[in-house]
Amino acid sequence: MRSAKDFFRPLAVGAPAPLREVPFRPSRMIHFFDPGNEKMAAKVPALVSEVDVLLGNLEDAVAADRKEAARAGLVKTARATDFGGTQLWTRINSLDSPWALDDLVTLVTEIGDRLDVVMVPKVEGPQDIHYVDRLLAQLEAKAALTRPILVHAILETAAGVTAVEEIAAASPRMQGISLGPADLAADRRMKTTRVGGGHPGYLVREDPGGRAPRATYQQDLWHYTLARMVDACAAHGILPYYGPFGDIQDTTACEDQFRNAFLLGCVGAWSLHPVQIGIARRVFSPAPQEVAWARRVIAAMGDGTGAVMIDGKMQDDATYKQCRVVAELADALAA
Ligand code: GLV
Ligand code: MG
After folding, report:
1. Which one of 152, 185, 209, 243 is separated from 21 by 20 to 30 angstroms, measured CA to CA?
2. For the chain, what percent of residues have pLDDT higher than 90?
3. pLDDT computed for residue 22 by the predictor
4. Rounded distance between C-alpha atoms, residue 326 and residue 335, angstroms
5. Rounded-to-integer distance, Cα 179 and Cα 240, Å
6. DSSP three-state, residue 280
7. Cβ-based burial of 199 (10 A; exposed 0-12, middle 13-18, buried ≥19)
């Protein structure tokens, strides 16, 4: 079987960008904007200090007759903005659309030096990542870029879910994977009509205990897929994300969805509206009391082996490792 490295072969001609060791960069909120919408694009400079990632969206939510304006708007905004430490990502159109090739050629040629990550929608298998990977290698070499552009896949087709491990391993460029609940729901023929979050009909009812009406509890529609995606990402050293939450007004449900994803292992989510930026920052940063507890366990565990009791709770090598995850994330976010 071919390994991911086989797909990152240097080009025969030109000087391909070397693959860097990807340093940790916060990406708690991937904030979407429509670069063809002048009002929205004008707000980008003010958002730079508010978010970890700004993403110029070219795909869904940009109408077919505005695709070129969005692409041109992204080039203009990227050139005019000082992003500082904030990452610039784009979501290109899907590989079966008439726009994806032009998206890649234009963006890498014009603003490849500013672009950190290309998000690829509707990924169905490793072949989609290989295609983008090889194209990027050519375009980077042509533009004499000195660092590679990374790739992020959206998991939003049933075929993609069944191939998620291979997608995660498809290239050393792979930065991460986001769950795309809206397209995934349609592709799976689920009976929802919303962008992410739960559904009041997807519930369990408490056992009958008497005459009073039985309480119902909404279940998480995305638990299985998210958990499967987190495993694939963790096994291949890339980052998992929850995607969009479309009910902008329901900040409580948004926070619940983001928190479930964080606790399961995700490092961030998309923000579709400024109100979701603060939610993502809060949820995807470990709480100070959790960090303090983690540091206490780490200190008590010495070299990380053996067992100790703290406040009546048994700690051992495995809790030490969990605590290091929390403490190291807090340190990385504070750096
Ligand atoms: C995101 O693209 C989704 O389909 O949920
Ligand atoms: Mg989608």
Report:
1. 243
2. 89
3. 57
4. 14
5. 8
6. helix
7. middle
